[in-house]
Specification:
elongated, single chain, 6 strands, 6-stranded mixed beta sheet, alpha+beta
């Protein structure tokens, strides 16, 4: 009499094959995944621009105030335009709020409060239609700033090369005031534009 033992099929061999197949799939996915990533390389900004993300905390705080002020400036411009009669509307500069009007509304950075003192005591001027220049009166890290509110989005420039000393006065800082406010003139004068979106570069002509 011949006796033959038969090993019961408990699924162990099949489980091993399934585990091996899963391991192969994971290995292929691990090595192939980088080749399927979209080429999302960061766009490099031109030399005359700096990303708002790369600003120092003090500069970032000033830029944040100017962005909020920009919205209010444009609202005031619209209100002033609505309140002017037809003859006055021929002079478009009347639309834009003056420094005195902005300060009277306690609008930073134009109002002379504790924050204004801390950030460099900027002397602000309304130079042209929607163009506001601020020159620091206290030596230190504060920089001259230029806010251009002629467009829906604010355009902000700063001069990083200014060498302000304790005996400097606003009158002898004429080199900081650009002759015109086109991008080319500002770039030639050493000004840097703050970029809020690296894919959208603002150019004024």
């Amino acid at each position: 009499m011949i006796t033959e033992s038969v090993k019961s099929d408990d699924g162990g061999t099949e489980g091993q094959w399934v585990a091996l197949a899963i391991a192969v799939i994971l290995a292929v996915a691990y090595f192939a995944l980088p080749y399927h990533q979209s080429g999302g390389s960061k766009q490099e900004l031109p030399a005359h621009q700096v990303s708002v993300k790369d600003l120092d905390p003090e500069d970032l705080a000033m830029v944040a105030e100017l962005r909020l002020a920009h919205e209010e400036i444009r609202n005031l411009r619209q209100d002033n335009q609505d309140n002017l009669d037809e003859s006055a509307k021929q002079i478009s500069n009347h639309f834009w709020p003056s420094i005195e009007e902005l300060a009277s509304l306690w609008l930073a950075p134009f109002v002379k409060d504790k924050s204004w003192e801390h950030k460099g005591r900027h002397y602000w001027q309304h130079l042209s239609n929607g163009v506001y220049l601020g020159v620091p009166q206290r030596p230190g890290t504060a920089k001259p700033l230029l806010l251009i509110s002629q467009h829906v989005e604010p355009v902000i420039w700063f001069n990083p090369t200014s060498d302000l000393t304790s005996d400097s006065t606003f009158e002898n800082r004429a080199f900081e005031r650009p002759a015109t406010f086109s991008s080319s003139a500002l770039i030639d004068a050493g000004w840097i534009q703050v970029s809020f979106d690296e894919n959208a570069q603002h150019h004024l002509h």
